[in-house]
Amino acid sequence: MTRPFDRPAIARAAQAGGAAEALGALPEWDLTHLYPAMDSPAFATDVERAATEARRFAELYRGKLAALAVREDASAALAEAVRAYESLEDLVGKIMSYAGLIYSGDTTDPLRAKFYGDTQDKVTTISTELLFFGLELNRIDEALLAKAAAQAPLSHWKPWLDDLAKDKPHQLEDRIEELFHEKSVTGHGAWNRLFDETIASLRFNVGGDDLTLELTLNRLQDADGAVRKEAAEVLGTVFRQHLRTFGLITNTLAKDKEISDRWRKFEDVADSRHLANRVEREVVDALVAAVREAYPRLSHRYYKLKARWFGQDTLDYWDRNAPLPKVEQRTIPWTEARDT
Questions:
Q1: pLDDT digits (tens, 9 = 90+) for 224-276
Q2: How far is 239 from 217, CA to CA, in rounded Å?
Q3: Exposure on the CB side of residue 218, measured as CA atoms within 13 A
Q4: Superfamily for 1-181?
Q5: 174 and 134 Cβ atoms separated by less than 8 Å
Q6: E strands, the chain, where?
């Protein structure tokens, strides 16, 4: 089933001062094997081709899959449709992967942000044309689909069809699915992007340097306890200044998920994630219980030991990631790390 495309989850950390010099020249993504540039004709051509082929695919198959399933050559007929769908998904995935990686390279760059947003909007429109396919496959009589998938050529995609069927209890009427899909860009997708771009834009004044979040977090691993403490306190101060924004984002996303879960009849707040991960709730619950049960003999014991190493009864929160005392610390250049 076609799903909304998630936003990238990382942002490039700006280098600063001596740390950057010690690291040496760092590698950068070479995305030219996908497209030469954001404004390349090849990219624009693929976007237009995807839109054209998606419309043609919808005209050819929308509302007709059930009829294909009752034909004598059902396996071949459905396989042809799945093969065309797979090809389109690959093309759309290539387009969105490129846009996402470009944006992830620097989420503070307005040109990249606009490129990613425009591409996401176009891809959402394109993928809306494909949304019907998974929904209709799940509405085909199970016995007919199983019979067709038991023989070649459709048998090649049987694992995918079995996986797709797991969504069936939670899928909605086509027009509602279409609405959910289209509104994802202005709904949870927009709020996630606001969070990412807000985080990427924050600056933290530590020791007279204006640092990004990543570089500030790195100060929590400094050998000097005073540096770690200052970094931790500055982090708290800046985050508190944006508390209303973060609170609004979190509460909006929580309500957005509650609405979706209610419509799709998920019983537990984590059930949709379990379904997406294709793992049973009981397995996750067992894992969580085992980890929690091990807290005292693992994490609690470790932090008590680390506190003793620092000559303290209780470890300060800014010392959780501190390097061990009396252990030499050095910056490892990229070339050395790569060749090790």
A1: 999 999 999 999 999 999 999 999 999 999 999 999 999 999 999 999 999 99
A2: 13
A3: 12
A4: Oligopeptidase f, N-terminal domain (1.20.140.70)
A5: no
A6: 204-206, 209-211
96: CB partners within 8 A, 6+ apart: 5, 119, 120, 123
Q: Phi, psi (5° rounding) for residue 175?
A: -70, -35
Which helix (H) or strand (E) segment holds residue 199: the answer is helix 188-201
Predicted TM-score (pTM) of the model is: 0.83
d(CA 34, CA 51): 18
Tokens 């459709």, residue located? 154
| pLDDT tens readout for residues 135-165 | 999 999 999 999 999 999 999 999 999 999 9
The residue ranges of every structural domain in the chain are: 1-181
Tell which residue, 110, 51, 101, 61, has the closest CA to residue 83: 61
CA dist 241 and 205 (Å) reads 14
CA separation for the pair 132, 64 (Å, rounded): 11
Closest C-alpha to 315, from 294, 329, 300, 335: 300
Going 157 to 163 to 169 to 172, the CA torsion angle's sign is negative
Question: Are the C-beta atoms of 107 and 200 separated by less than 8 Å?
Answer: yes
